[in-house]
Design a protein that fits this description.
By secondary structure, this protein is mainly alpha-helical. It contains 9 helices and 3 strands; from the N terminus they run H-E-H-H-E-E-H-H-H-H-H-H. Strands 1-3-2 form a 3-stranded antiparallel beta sheet. Strand 2 (68-70) and strand 3 form a beta hairpin. Helix 5 (110-131) runs antiparallel to helix 8 (185-200). The protein starts with 15 loop residues before the first helix and ends in a 5-residue tail after the last helix.
Length: 228
C-alpha cells in the first residue's frame, strides 16, 4: 500500500516522522488501533519513536484524512465507524474505481496486463488458503486485494485519481478488517471475472461485477454485526 512503501516519493529513506505516520496510519487501517481508541501522545511516543510535536502533526494529518478525530483540548482518538459511513465510502469507491477502470481498460498495454495478472495470482493464492481455513495472513490478503484493484486501474493515466482511490480504498479496507469480513469463493470468483474482463477489455461487464463485488462486501461486513 502507498503508505507502507519502503521509500518516499523522492526515492529517499523516509524520515522518522514519515515512518511514524505510515505505521500509525496502517495500524488504524488494519484495526490494530480500534475505533474510538484514545491516542495518548506519550504512549504513541514510546510505540512509534517520534517526538510529541511530530506526533501532534501526524495526528492532525490523519484527522484531515478522516482517520482520526481531533478533540481540541481533549486530544485525539481513532475515528469511529458507522453503517452510514461505510455505505458512503463504498459509494465513493465505486464512483472513482468504475471511472478509473473504464479508462484503464481502454488504455492498458501488455505491461499493464502483466501487472494485473501477477497481482491476481498473489491474491487468488491467498484467497484459496483462506477458503481452506487458514486465516493466519489476513493482513497480507487485504494488501494483495489492494494491489489487485490498484493494478486494474493503473493504466487510467491519472496519478491524482489513483491516489484518491487509494485513500478511499483504505477506508473501505478498514471496515473489512474491523468486521473480519471474508466472502470466500464468492469474492474470489468476482476477482477472477474482473481479471477476465480486463484481459478482454470488457468495461461494461467489469463495472457490473465491480458493483456487485463492493456492494456484496458491504452487506457481508454489516451482517457480522460488528459495525453499528
Amino acid at each position: 500500500m502507498k503508505h507502507d512503501a519502503p521509500q518516499g516519493q523522492s526515492g529517499q529513506i523516509p524520515t522518522v516522522g514519515e515512518n511514524a505516520y505510515r505505521r500509525i496510519r496502517a495500524d488504524i487501517v488494519f484495526g490494530r488501533l480500534a475505533p474510538r481508541q484514545k491516542l495518548k501522545l506519550e504512549k504513541l511516543r514510546d510505540s512509534y519513536g517520534a517526538s510529541i510535536s511530530t506526533l501532534r502533526e501526524i495526528l492532525n494529518r490523519l484527522a484531515s484524512e478522516s482517520l482520526v478525530l481531533a478533540e481540541g483540548q481533549r486530544g485525539f482518538e481513532v475515528a469511529p465507524v458507522s453503517v452510514e459511513n461505510l455505505r458512503e465510502i463504498a459509494a465513493l469507491r465505486l464512483l472513482l474505481e468504475n471511472h478509473a477502470l473504464e479508462q484503464s481498460l481502454a488504455a492498458g498495454d501488455m505491461e499493464w496486463e502483466g501487472r494485473v495478472v501477477a497481482a491476481h495470482h498473489k491474491l487468488a493464492t491467498l484467497e484459496r488458503r483462506m477458503s481452506e481455513g487458514d486465516r493466519s495472513e489476513t493482513e497480507l490478503w487485504k494488501r494483495y486485494d489492494w494491489e489487485f484493484h490498484q493494478a486494474l486501474i493503473s493504466a487510467c493515466g491519472s496519478s491524482v485519481l489513483m491516489d484518491t482511490h487509494a485513500g478511499v480504498f483504505d477506508k473501505y479496507l478498514r471496515y473489512q478488517m474491523i468486521a473480519l469480513s471474508f466472502r470466500g469463493d464468492i469474492a474470489a470468483e468476482e476477482h477472477r471475472i474482473l481479471l477476465e474482463c480486463a484481459l478482454e477489455r470488457d468495461s461494461v461487464r467489469a463495472r457490473e461485477v465491480l458493483v456487485r463485488h463492493v456492494e456484496g462486501g458491504v452487506e457481508h461486513a454489516l451482517a457480522t454485526g460488528t459495525i453499528r
